[in-house]
Design brief:
Structural class: mainly alpha
Order of helices and strands: HH
Number of strands: 0
Largest sheet: none
Distance between the termini: 29 Å
Number of domains: 1
Shape: elongated
Radius of gyration: 14 Å
């Protein structure tokens, strides 16, 4: 896979992760059990981390350019 193709794939995955993170966070709003809420938030944080790591992949392949992009960044 070329670097450009890897960048495109990582960017698309970040979009999909952001969508998943929003759905996971929405679960929290409908739950009252503290343990469930804590685990939902842990899942959300792991998705944030996955998005950030893919952003670092893009950054490394793209000459160190920051990829902070609200369309793909979880929590932005």
């Amino acid at each position: 896979m070329s670097d450009q193709r890897a960048i495109e794939e990582a960017t698309e995955l970040r979009v999909r992760i952001k969508d998943a993170a929003e759905a996971v966070r929405a679960i929290r709003d409908g739950v009252s059990n503290n343990e469930a809420i804590a685990n939902v938030m842990l899942a959300y944080r792991h998705l944030e981390d996955a998005s950030m790591r893919l952003g670092k992949v893009i950054q490394a392949l793209d000459g160190g350019v920051s990829v902070y992009d609200k369309r793909t960044t979880v929590g932005a």
